[in-house]
Structures are given as structure tokens and as C-alpha cells.
Amino acid sequence: xxEKGRSRVSAPKIEALFLALLVRSGEIVxxxxxxxxxxxxxxxxxxxxxxxxYISQLRKFLQYEVASPxxxxxxxxxxxxxxxxxxxxxxxxxxxxxxxxxxxxxxxHEPSAAAFQAAVGMLPGGSLSRYGKGxxxxxxxxxxxxxxxxxxxxxxxxRLELGHQRQLIxxxxxxxxxxxxxxxxxxxxxxxxxxxGRRADAxxxxxxxxxxxxxxxxxxxxxxxxxxHQEILLxxxxxxxxxxA
Length: 245
Known about the structure:
Layout: E1 3-4, E2 7-8, H1 12-23, E3 29-30, H2 31-39, H3 47-65, E4 71-75, E5 78-82, H4 89-105, H5 109-122, H6 135-161, H7 165-178, H8 183-195, H9 199-217, H10 223-233, H11 237-240
Antiparallel strand pairs: 1-2, 3-5, 4-5
Helix pairs in contact: 1-2, 1-3, 4-5, 5-6, 6-8, 7-8, 8-9, 8-10, 9-10
């Protein structure tokens, strides 16, 4: 959410309204869309009137509470949030992700890890579903969840390249509990275990994944996971290069 100093929006319905306008900043968001964001499929009879009140309250918040240069402009068929130089947290977040990707491509693992760690630290804890009930907030929630997973995966890769395999094992196990069907996390855990001298645990992790995918989806692990399992099973030198540190 938009926050400056100690001032912030706290009323749930205005939070939902603000989030929708922030996500679509610079674009017209129709009154119909905003009503959906606030009340979902069950708007009150006087939803349009209530929306006008919430818009007025949000305008006052931006003007007086946080002295923001952002303004909400009425434009048919709804409203548009004009940032006018304001910087949103998720723009900073996207900049950190871009920096992390660039550093990773260039093989600079320490600054890559730092950028992805900072990006993860900016994401809100828990579900964003409380901030809205419509398609705008729902899509944004899914976007942030996907970006969080990408950042965590990239962070693990960078830390693995830096030789932090022992420290990664417990952390990756926790992530797998959260994302039990995400195969790349299993691959990273298997590599971390193998490089930490825990070959048997790495092989057992593959079998855990195979059992999970089989019971949940009726699928086998992807070919890349199968090949990694075979490399570990045969103790290929490509993995031995990263012996336990």
C-alpha cells in the first residue's frame, strides 16, 4: 500500500479502492470496476453514492495526510490516479528485480543475491486478498505471488553459487512446504544437499517429489529433475565441483 511516514490508509473499503487506482495508475478505472473491487458481487443499493464518498475521502488523504503530488481525476466512465512524480513501492520492487536479473546474467552472484533479498523484503506478508474483491486486485495478487516465487528461486540460486548450500537446506525445505508442487525448488534443494555432502538426502528428495506429484497430479517429475537425479545417483563431476563448503 501507499505509505509515507506514519500516515496510511486503514479503512478496508478505501484500501481496496486505493489499491485498484494504484495498480492502474495513469489509466481510467471505471466506476463499475471500482465498485466490484470494493464490494465484489454484492454491492449495496447505493454503491455509486458510497463510491463518491470514498473517492472524496481518498482525495483528502492524499492532499492533507501525506501531502502527495498524486491526484484523483474524474474522467468518464470513472477515475484515474495521476501520480505526478510520486514513486510507488512496486516500481522500486520491479527495479530491484531487474537489477537482480542483470547481475545474475553477468555472473555477479553477491549483488544479485542482495537485490533479490531486498525485493523479497519489500513484499507484503500474507495474502493481499483483503485489499480487494475484484479482478484488478486479484490479478495484482497473483502477479506479486509469482514475482515472490521468482525472487526466492533466484535468491537461492545466487546463494548456492556463493557456497551457502548448508544454510539453504532448511530454508528451501520451508519454501517447499509453502509451494509443494514447484519443481525448481526441489532441484535447488537436491543440489544444496548434494553439495553439502548429503547425497542420500538429495536422492530421497527426488522420491518425495515424485510421490507428491504422483498423488496430487498423476505426473512424474520433469526431465530436468530426472536428469539431476541421475547425475547425483552417478556422482557426476559437474556436481562434485561444488563440494561441501
